[in-house]
Design brief:
Two copies of one chain form a homodimer.
Chain A (H helix, E strand, L loop, with lengths): L4 H15 L9 H8 L3 H13 L3 E4 L5 E4 L8 H8 L24 H17 L3 H4 L3 H10 L1
Antiparallel strand pairs in A: 1-2
Helix pairs in contact in A: 1-3, 1-4, 2-3, 4-5
């Protein structure tokens, strides 16, 4: 059971931008790529998604870059993950239109799995980006080392 | 977020064998392949795993086949899923030895994700194969149609 790299990296971008709050200079994709040693290509798509979802705002041109568009307390980890995961098709029959399994009309597994998924998200919904930023001084130091 | 097909099919095999309890004739891989319209190849590995884990017992030769080795009430859905999933590496840094991310020493995400995963499994641990077999008459009918 895994989350996508897209989710993983989206959370990392938000953590990075969270530690930069209050700084005059906007963060760039290069800053984030250096801080995490990950490719700019991955990051471009992620930044686009996070901007579209209203988590960050971006400015083009010289001196341009990005910053959080909301307070970290207002960014729910659960909501971010729901938006970045492609689907929550835990088993085959959860996929749209997939009715291959012969016992679908009687199977008790889907409601059990849905309850488990709901419990998973209840935990993540109880956390915000602010919780991820508590060790801020340490995070800042680690980003500096890159 | 997905479970592997291996998990999905393992649960299906257990459900099938559960509905066959009390029948004199042992179930064969062909029976299960026909009931679910899935390939024998997949099933062979799954049956091997389920036998190794002590959920089913198999007999070779003429009249051979398999059946549940335990009462359905004693087969926890959570335990089955823990045994069939390769890993629960929700994010990159959960993978053994993967220390690529620069903020690992300070990151608050792993404990949050672990709590969410624990909540997920608490739900599945509260269910047994017996719960999946409640609509038994309906399941038997669906298997007959194949």
């Amino acid at each position: 059971m895994r989350l996508t790299n897209f989710t993983d990296y989206s959370l990392r971008v938000l953590i990075y931008l969270g530690t930069r709050r209050g700084e005059a200079r906007l963060a760039t994709i290069d800053d984030i790529a250096t801080a995490y040693r990950i490719s700019r290509n991955h990051l471009t798509k992620i930044v686009h998604h996070l901007a579209k979802e209203g988590y960050i705002e971006t400015t083009r041109g010289k001196g341009g870059g990005m910053r959080l568009a909301r307070a970290p307390e207002e960014i729910s980890v659960g909501t971010v993950v729901r938006g970045t995961e492609e689907d929550f098709a835990l088993v085959e029959c959860f996929q749209d239109g997939n009715l291959d399994c012969s016992i679908i009309p009687a199977c008790a597994l889907p409601p059990f799995l849905n309850r488990a998924l709901a419990a998973f998200f209840r935990e993540l919904d109880s956390r915000t980006l602010a919780d991820l930023l508590r060790p801020r001084a340490q995070l800042v130091q680690l980003f500096r080392r890159g």
